[in-house]
Protein 1
Amino acid sequence: MTALCLLFISLSFALITAESSVYFREQFEDGDAWKSRWLESTHKSDYGKFVLSAGKFYGDAEKDKGLQTSQDAHFYAISSRFEDFSNKDQPLVIQFTVKHEQGIDCGGGYIKLFPSDLKQEEMNGDSTYNIMFGPDICGPGTKKVHVIFNYKGKNHLINKDIRCKDDEYSHLYTLVVNPDNTYEVKIDNKKVESGSLEDDWDFLPPKKIKDPDAKKPEDWDEREKIGDPDDKKPEDWDKPETIPDPDAKKPDDWDEEMDGEWEPPMVTNPDYKGEWKPKQIDNPAYKGKWVHPEIDNPEYTPDSEIYKYSSIGVIGLDLWQVKSGTIFDNFLITNDPKLAEEVGNESWGATKDAEKKMKDSQEEEERKKREEEDKKRSEEAKDEADEEDKDEEDEDEEDEEEEDEEDGEEEGTDSKLKDEL
Ligand SMILES: *[C@@H]1O[C@H](CO)[C@@H](O)[C@H](O)[C@H]1NC(C)=O
């Protein structure tokens, strides 16, 4: 084989591997047409409704439309199908945006990726999935990004803590799973976690275990220090802890017959030295800490294809929300991390600043409105107070008049009496 031929082969190989596939993309930019692509599960009769909305604030009224949860305290279950594929020998990239514009208290913001044999109308919390990925918030205690893989029929949670965003803006979540069994999690196109699947999940039993046949020898001395055997307790060490108070005197009016025999109160003995301990010296027999020898775990079998799913065909939102209002948008499933980054830049990246600006100006307006209302309310309160003061003054005057009248009557009777006398 000639060098040129080799070069050609490697070039075309590079071209083939560089080819990118988009397995699924959903931007919700064609009105109600999404309803033909997404199917609500009927497993329960009271799933919450998803509506198409860009929300209360957005960067672009059309582009930022996505699926919004619209009913508080509901389960949601909706999914969309695409052509079945396997991520064998290729990266798998899952990406979407989540916007908790309602100020979420407790609720899921994650997606699930299912094998294509999922019955969409039956999808529910127990449906077998391949991957669950995305933010989950519940109170101040739970604010994490889930990365759960189904491996040989069992779901495995990541053993690292990845914090999710908990503000009210749109955020881009990306998971990259590579065929070399490594992964990367990105938020807003920035890496927040990465590593190896084998290390960060407990898919496989540990490579090494403690040798069950190894035992610490009986005479293994782990004491670094010992009491000096040559050290002896001084003869005069032992003294009572308390003694009769030498300064106490029997009171003059003590009556032995009435009060019994007088005894001085007990006080702490200043000569008491506590328990005697020999001085500590280096233990000449010290052997160091015994380390349990390890052996290869017979249960461990390496797996170079932990990352691999033979069938991926449905993406779903299967979650619970207390306070609704979350908007999901810009779904992308591809084998090309670079493309995903670009798409993220062009969608989330292009509207995020305008979204923040709109929210800021709404908040500014609300603040002004509140201030004006407060001002109006305090002016009204002042006017009312003035009115009340006036009323009180009038009442005072009336009271005084009444008193005058009463006085007059009395006077009248007096004068009447006088006249009669
Ligand atoms: C995405 O945007 C960031 C920030 O502007 C930039 O650094 C990065 O190169 C962009 N990525 C792609 C693939 O365009």
Note: The longest strand covers residues 74-85.
Protein 2
Amino acid sequence: MLIDLLKETEALLEGHFLLSSGKHSDRYVQCAKLLQHPDSAEKAIGIIVEKLKDIDFDVVVGPAMGGVIVSYELGRQTGKPALFTERVEGKMVLRRGFKIEEGQKVLIAEDVVTTGKSSYETIQEIESLGGEVVGIVCIVDRTTKALDIPVYGGTKLEIDTYDEENCPLCKSGIPYKKLGSRNLKK
Ligand SMILES: [Zn+2]
């Protein structure tokens, strides 16, 4: 189970946290903690690859930073090229000589998908280059409403966040830990 891998590698923490957004939550996900271990990354992406058996795609593209290792490992296990986009002056772009051919089927690779913001920015770039995006792959699917593109997540996780004044953990007098990662804002 992917959820066990997340816990074993401390990529999923449980407790009481102050997020960089200022909100409080009872769980915190940082996929880099899992992906730092190549054997865990291999297992996690392997679970997702099982779900992709009937999906026809030519290339994987992950938005940096979170999507880079996921893209690489997915490409390694499926024998497809693994590209990444990066943010330049606020815009998500394909650089470094990476190319998308007209009509190529593309899978987007992410660590976590919440609102799909970085995925959609990547989709826009891929489509402007003539590619056709067929889905989004992620380790943790945190979406709370359906996106207009299929999401193939390793595990589904709904993490509630609270303003301090409404936080049930604060009300119970549990002290919080401060965590900093822009990752959570996605
Ligand atoms: Zn709180």
Note: Helices lie at 2-8, 32-35, 38-50, 66-78, 117-128, 168-171.
